[in-house]
Amino acid sequence: MSLRAVLLITLQREPGTGYDILQRFKAGLAHVWQASHQQLYRELDRMRGDGLLTCETLPQTERPDRKVYQLTEAGRQALDTWLAEPLSTSPVRQPLFAKFFAWERWPEEARRKEFTAFRKQLQERLTTYAAIEREWFSNPETLTPAQRAPWHTLRLGKRLTETWVEWVEEVMEED
Amino acid sequence: MSLRAVLLITLQREPGTGYDILQRFKAGLAHVWQASHQQLYRELDRMRGDGLLTCETLPQTERPDRKVYQLTEAGRQALDTWLAEPLSTSPVRQPLFAKFFAWERWPEEARRKEFTAFRKQLQERLTTYAAIEREWFSNPETLTPAQRAPWHTLRLGKRLTETWVEWVEEVMEED
DNA sequence: CTGTCAAATGCAACTTGTTGCATAAGGCTA
DNA sequence: TAGCCTTATGCAACAAGTTGCATTTGACAG
């Protein structure tokens, strides 16, 4: 259901095509949700089938046609219903932690590589966050509550990632 | 693949039945991996089919039979292969963040309820962590590296959860 | 002039995870 | 004595996510 909800949210803010949404996923929405183009196109078509979206095909010369999706009244209602009901907790799945539980069989070199690569990923993520913050939230005091909300999510993402980095570095140092 | 890996790890430490593993999942492994009994039984049977596990049926009077699974050599090898190769990054999926992106349509009351329930979950998680810490890691200095590793995962879990709690409280206060 | 990238869409097969239901016997509680 | 909990296993249908492949045109690099 959650992919649906995310699509309802982005299309409610602004109608668009599968490709558009993919770009949004790569930009600011990247720390909220990620999905492949296959998944998007399939889900959009299903949502249209379920009456949550309308689809308008804009023919283009020199390019494949664009299919612009837009919320219907049923779509807006579905979104409101989803917002109103509390989220269920998602199951814990931490493959990295699993490796820690097999410490004896985990070769030292592989371990080091894993930690290094992982820290690099985390630091790249921090760079991305910083870029988003600069571009969209340069002065947080002037934001409206609705604009402030996504800023909060970014702040948390940053703090969590920092916590991860500290931890990996501690583990690496000790190892 | 990761569920497989987790099963290989737990069964390598000690052979057991699907039900046993389910209990381990509820106890110390709960902050690493969670899965339903249906998933476990199905996966165990497939792994046996793939030659990673052997299965011995212990008949019990007055109870359904127990099927004790144990790693084969191929199973140990599969585990080592998995440990040696670096983990791929898992896609971001944060339904709560998604709601923040629909702030205007998210009714205040639903928001408050969500935050309160969420904070409660986080605090319960912290309680669980504390219990695990008391039971298994009461004096960390005396641990061997292999015992120390899962303790690290617990520490990170704790810190991340604390970060979440701080954040939710900030957001609640501001809202 | 060949290859790759970007724009734009999609199908098909597969794996993974969820939900609902089922069985069977003993113990415990109202 | 009826109903639920625990032990112990599973099937079947479905939903969600992944992987591999395919199409069309223009632009740009080597």
From TrEMBL, chains A, B:
Residues 92-173 form the Transcription regulator PadR C-terminal domain. The keyword Cell membrane does not apply. It comes from the Bacteria. InterPro entries: Tscrpt_reg_PadR_C (IPR018309), Tscrpt_reg_PadR_N (IPR005149), WH-like_DNA-bd_sf (IPR036388), WH_DNA-bd_sf (IPR036390). Keywords: DNA-binding. Gene3D superfamilies: 6.10.140.190, Winged helix-like DNA-binding domain superfamily/Winged helix DNA-binding domain. The keyword DNA-binding applies. Residues 7-80 form the Transcription regulator PadR N-terminal domain. One of its GO terms (molecular function) is DNA binding. This is Winged helix-turn-helix transcription repressor, DNA-binding protein. It comes from Halomonas campaniensis. The lineage of its organism: Bacteria, Pseudomonadati, Pseudomonadota, Gammaproteobacteria, Oceanospirillales.
